[in-house]
Design goal:
It comes from Hansschlegelia beijingensis. InterPro entries: Amidohydro_3, Metal-dep_hydrolase_composite, Metal_Hydrolase, Metallo-dep_Hydrolase, PhnM. The protein has 13 helices and 16 strands. By secondary structure, the chain is an alpha/beta fold. The strands form 2 sheets. Strands 1, 2, 3, 4, 5, 14, 15 and 16 form an 8-stranded mixed sheet that branches. Strands 6-7-8-9-10-11-12-13 form an 8-stranded parallel sheet, with helices on both faces. Helix 2 crosses helix 3.
């Protein structure tokens, strides 16, 4: 049965137009300008109708597995279901759930404890058809963990794995190159003084040696499976050269203009944090994502740790640096689809999946009106 949505502001690849979209059997059948007079056509009252958002990297699932420090939620599927609803409420129709293989600190192994349960919960939710949106797995490879290889090996070939990122959170490196900033972050988590200094010393000693060993091992594992690789928190042109030489195709969250320019020159797509856009800058001393957008060095946005930041960032980027609305939307729809090889979604075009988000902006705040995933109403 065909559904006709009319009196919409359609967010297309080349602009926003007043028009009508029809879909049936989970697929977009027609996109046209103007109103439809067909019986049963649904009046969208001038709301925006955009492709469903595609999230390449969100840590939100972990928040529901560890809702407070030291608390691991005992029902993995329940945690995944709440995460699923939050992503849907943010306008996301396809999510790559970033699950951490390895941890920052070998003495704090809660990530090792929850990693297999997070993978299993996502797989079960997909297999049972209980999620509202489409879920894939993004393996966050913490290379500074000496136990990384044994943790990740059983999961590399899982069918839902769509992306892997190579991370090194060793203090003094990349995102945490400024150790003073890291100390302030740790203080917010209750670690101060001598305890923080001792933890930093252990992480520095273990991390540097482990990352050097784990990097080539991880690259080989994922490239053998044909899984796209992303570098993470590139800070220098040398970081980008290493990533490109290893076969990475994405530079996640470059922390400097230098790294973003090097990524563009090397042919790596860049992903910036939507919370960075909404807040007006980085919480860890990195480059402002608005600055990357202004320089033409931004290919996609990720909600990272705040699902609702995606649509807020889209709206904000239409003011500074003044992107046209359809170009701002492309950062969360067609461009992430292209970098992940999802050729069946991310645009409003006949033949593609009917993944649709209906919304309006009220004084800069996105108000979601409905969400459709493969032609089925999800919200």
């Amino acid at each position: 049965m065909e559904t006709i949505l009319t009196n919409a502001r359609l967010v297309l690849e080349d602009g926003v137009v007043a028009g009508t979209l029809a879909h049936a059997d989970g697929v977009i059948r027609d996109v046209s300008e103007g109103l439809s007079r067909a019986p049963g056509a649904v009046d969208l009252e001038g709301d925006l109708l955009a492709p469903g958002l595609i999230e390449v990297h969100t840590d939100n699932l972990e928040k529901h597995f560890v809702p407070r420090p030291g608390v691991i939620w005992p029902n993995p599927l329940a945690a995944a279901l709440v995460h699923d609803v939050q992503m849907a409420a943010a306008g996301v129709t396809t999510v790559c759930d970033a699950v951490c293989a390895g941890g920052y600190d070998a003495d704090n192994d809660y990530r090792r404890a929850i990693f297999p349960d997070m993978v299993a919960a996502v797989e079960r939710g997909v297999a049972e058809g209980v999620f509202r949106i489409d879920h894939r797995l993004h393996l966050r490879c913490e290379l500074s963990d000496p136990n990384f290889a044994e943790d990740v090996a059983p999961h590399v070939a899982r069918p839902l794995v769509a992306l892997a990122s190579l991370m090194d959170h060793t203090p003094g490196q990349r995102q945490w190159r400024d150790v003073a900033t890291l100390k302030r972050f740790m203080a917010g988590e209750g670690l101060k003084g001598a305890d923080a200094d001792a933890l930093l010393a252990r992480r520095m000693e273990r991390g540097a040696a482990a990352a050097a060993t784990n990097w080539p091992h991880a690259v080989r594992l994922f490239l053998e499976q044909g899984i796209p690789l992303a570098s993470h928190d590139d800070t220098t042109a040398e970081h980008v050269r290493e990533a490109a030489a290893a076969g990475c195709v994405i530079s996640e969250f470059p922390t400097t203009l230098e790294a973003a320019r090097a990524a563009r020159a090397a042919g790596l797509a860049t992903v910036g944090g939507a919370p960075n856009v909404v807040r007006g800058g980085s919480h860890s001393g990195g480059v402002a994502v608005e600055e990357l957008a202004r320089a033409g060095l931004l290919d996609a946005l990720s909600s990272d740790y705040v699902p609702a930041s995606l649509l807020q960032a889209v709206e904000r980027l239409t003011h500074a640096p003044g992107l046209p609305l359809h170009e701002a939307f492309a950062l969360v729809t067609s461009r992430p689809a292209a970098m992940l090889g999802f050729s069946d979604r991310g645009r409003l075009a006949p033949g593609l999946r009917a993944d649709l988000v209906r919304l309006r902006f009220m004084d800069g705040t996105p108000v979601l009106r409905s969400l459709t995933v493969a032609g089925r109403r999800a919200l």
